[in-house]
Design brief:
Number of helices: 13
Number of strands: 11
Radius of gyration: 32 Å
Strand order of the largest sheet: 3-2-1-7-10-9
Distance between the termini: 74 Å
Shape: elongated
Number of domains: 3
Order of helices and strands: EEHEEEEHHHHHHHEEEEEHHHHH
């Protein structure tokens, strides 16, 4: 076990992680949305399991599939792709919510449970080690509730912080509390000497414990906090004496105290401690979208959205959407001549047409077929007036042609 697990604020120093950067490329076709995934660093295991189901893929770094209607939600969110057809053009709508599969409230509850579990083991052990100092045991009992609540609050603050800020925030809090001298930062971040790092981390632990228990940092009763070897030996001896109250997932006789503390720590998204999955999206669009929150690259005919990290349970919801129209230029030219029905006016027409019952769409289209060569819009309107009031909105929309 890495000694850094014994220091709540410094776990990021030695842990390992995977960084998956996934580029999602989308192309709308009449039949479906073509979805291609390329992962630099490979897909994370949970994502890959969902990809295997939705894409029937076997490559751990790429996948491609065609989806009509509902999108696969392989990144934990949901989405849809719809093409609304009309006799004059098509309106295409794409919307997708990229979201962490973890429920934020459930994450908070897990922090609460894991801290309570760790406290139910570590605090009685600490009281056992301090048995020869009754005043220190009394101080521990007095501060127990505040200690647990404070640790929960600290983990929640770190969990809510942007993952890339967590190391700096942890170091700042240690320095602010006087537990870390800024001159010691090179030892934390610059040295590969594990003994130096271990000595510093245990010095921080002893100082923190001594403050709470109103003891001197070099008090004999805190000797077990001088090294990983001593700490583990005392922990295993306590487990062997049978004083520990049973808890869920009870540590075994060969366990280490840092493993108990690591459980709540792993709920904080820290670089080099947890995996990251940054997902960016590109969508091919043949025309400029009417509505979108993406960045339009006219030359490349595509929309782009920035990457979002989907491992962070508290990451903001990332909505990607775009709406555009693809006009039937030949049909519009035959019907309206030099007049133009485009942009939002064409979008309004397509949505009106798509909302008509099938029988009404057939009658409307047949009427336009007969009148496609009508040279004047007024004459077209007069001819269509005989179709009935249900088509009044359609005639008004055609009148928007300029």
């Amino acid at each position: 076990m890495h000694v850094a697990r014994l220091a709540p604020l410094l776990a990021f120093l030695v842990a390992c992680s995977r960084d998956s950067r996934v580029e999602v490329t989308l192309e709308s076709t009449p039949a479906a949305l073509v979805r291609t995934l390329e992962a630099d660093g490979g897909f994370l295991p949970d994502t890959f399991r969902r990809i295997l189901i939705a894409f029937d893929a076997r490559d751990e770094a790429s996948a491609s599939g065609r989806f009509a209607g509902i999108l696969p939600g392989e990144f934990g969110g949901s989405g849809f792709h719809r093409r609304f057809e009309s006799d004059l053009g098509v309106l295409v709508a794409y919307s997708e919510l990229l979201a962490s599969p973890e429920d934020p409230w459930e994450h908070i509850e897990r922090i609460d449970r894991e801290v309570e579990r760790a406290a139910s083991l570590l605090l009685p052990w600490l009281a056992h080690e301090l048995a020869d100092v009754p005043a220190a045991v009394a101080a521990l009992r007095e501060h127990e509730a505040d200690l647990i609540r404070g640790f929960k609050g600290l983990l929640l603050e770190l969990a809510l912080a942007p993952p890339e800020d967590v190391p700096a925030l942890a170091a700042h809090l240690l320095a602010e509390s006087g537990l870390l001298d800024p001159d010691e930062l090179p030892t934390l971040f610059g040295t590969a000497d594990e003994e130096q790092v271990e000595a510093l981390l245990f010095r921080i632990l002893r100082t923190s414990a001594a403050r709470m228990l109103e003891l001197e940092a070099d008090a004999p009763s805190l000797h077990f906090l001088t090294s990983e070897e001593a700490c583990t030996a005392h922990w295993r001896a306590w487990l062997a004496c049978g004083e520990a109250r049973p808890v869920d997932d009870m540590p075994g006789p060969d366990s280490e105290p840092g493993e108990v503390l690591a459980s709540p720590l792993e709920l904080v998204d820290m670089p080099f401690f947890k995996d990251t999955e940054r997902v960016s999206v590109r969508l091919h669009v043949p025309v400029e979208p009417l509505w979108t929150n993406g960045r339009h690259d006219a030359a490349a005919q595509r929309l782009e959205w920035p990457a979002v990290d989907l491992v962070d349970a508290f990451a903001p919801l990332a909505l990607r959407y775009a709406v555009w129209v693809e006009p039937d230029e030949a049909r519009l030219g035959a019907l309206l001549g030099e007049r133009r029905l485009a942009g939002e006016a064409l979008a309004d027409y397509v949505m009106w047409f798509a909302a008509l019952p099938e029988e009404a769409r057939t009658r409307w289209t047949a009427a336009l077929d007969r009148l496609a060569s009508t040279p004047e819009l007024e004459a077209l309107g007069a001819a269509l007036a005989g179709l009935g009031d249900e088509f009044e909105q359609g005639m008004e929309l055609l009148a928007a042609a300029r």
